[in-house]
Specification:
Elements lengths: L2 E2 L13 H20 L4 H4 L10 H20 L25 H20 L22 H27 L1 E2 L2
Parallel strand pairs: 1-2
Helix pairs in contact: 1-5, 3-4, 3-5
């Protein structure tokens, strides 16, 4: 049985500032990801219902590291010990059994907060700092490009979670 849950509103249609729109939509999608996971059991967030085998908890870890790689290590050039997590860039996102959904969720929220701090102190036209992800200025994209890239990651993966949640328990639209 399909059960539809009402989604919160998108950022206001009156917004015209591109930075405010990007910030608003990133927060909207961060929240959407968490809404799609909240209410699932610890077992469900660790269970795959897809042929590819990824789990909802692995996807949350992936999104956390997307922000770390692009905003902390990428834009701010912070030294990050494991920008890809404890796997390489082409490997699955495995979550240790002793790490709970609540702990992963808290890490995700802390990462999002650090991303907001980085973005708040910059302009969309600013280029990523050299020395982190980008070894030369020629390779460094603008903050606007990075934010659009992160936003499309969230939008795409939120859609994946829509399907996973419906397959797991019939909930749609949250």
């Amino acid at each position: 049985m399909v059960k539809e849950v009402e989604s919160p509103p998108e950022p206001p249609g009156s917004l015209t500032d591109p930075g405010e729109l990007l910030d608003g939509y990133l927060d909207f999608y961060r929240d959407a990801v968490l809404r799609k996971l909240d209410g699932l059991t610890e077992e469900q967030v660790r269970t795959s219902v897809l042929p590819s085998g990824w789990t909802p908890l692995e996807l949350l870890v992936h999104l956390r590291y997307v922000e770390i790689r692009w905003l902390r290590w990428g834009f701010a050039a912070e030294q990050v010990s494991e920008p890809w997590g404890d796997q390489g860039p082409d490997e699955r996102w495995h979550v240790p059994e002793n790490l709970t959904y609540a702990e992963v969720r808290a890490e995700f929220l802390a990462t999002a907060e650090r991303s907001r701090e980085i973005v708040a102190g910059a302009r969309l036209g600013d280029m990523a700092a050299v020395g982190g992800r980008f070894p030369t200025a020629d390779e460094a994209p603008s903050l606007a490009w990075i934010l659009f890239h992160v936003l499309q990651e969230y939008a795409r993966h939120t859609g994946h979670l829509d399907v996973v949640r419906e397959l797991m328990d019939g909930i749609i639209g949250e």
